[in-house]
Design a protein that fits this description.
By secondary structure, the chain is mainly alpha-helical. It contains five helices and no strands. The radius of gyration is 18 Å and the shape is extended.
Length: 115
């Protein structure tokens, strides 16, 4: 088996984790206005850590245990077979398309319709 090249450094990983877990600064203004700057900053720091830490640990464990290309598809394929791996890949792809469309419309509304 060919050795996989590991090309993600610490800074890259920090940015990947940040952008995967935070939806952007679209609710920051209302959050700070609602709860104040101290609690708002605490929420912005704690929530991504609590939300993402279990997923990061699970993905890190699976990636170190099964070091092959394919990510979720390969993991599900090995555990449950090709049918469920296909289902996982297909459903992940579909919800990503819907999620990207929702995020785009949210961004457009935030940029052009927010007064």
């Amino acid at each position: 088996m060919q050795q996989l090249r590991r090309g993600v450094g610490t800074l890259s990983l920090v940015f990947i984790l940040f952008f995967c877990t935070s939806g952007g600064p679209y609710t920051t203004e209302t959050l700070i206005r609602s709860v104040g700057p101290g609690l708002g900053l605490l929420i912005l720091i704690v929530v991504p850590l609590v939300w993402s830490t279990p997923e990061v640990l699970i993905v890190g464990e699976l990636a170190s245990m099964l070091p092959e290309e394919g990510g979720y598809y390969r993991w599900v394929d090995r555990a449950f077979g090709r049918f469920w791996a296909f289902q996982n890949g297909w459903l992940t792809w579909m919800y990503s398309l819907v999620d990207m469309a929702i995020n785009l419309m949210r961004d457009v509304n935030g940029l052009f319709l927010w007064q």
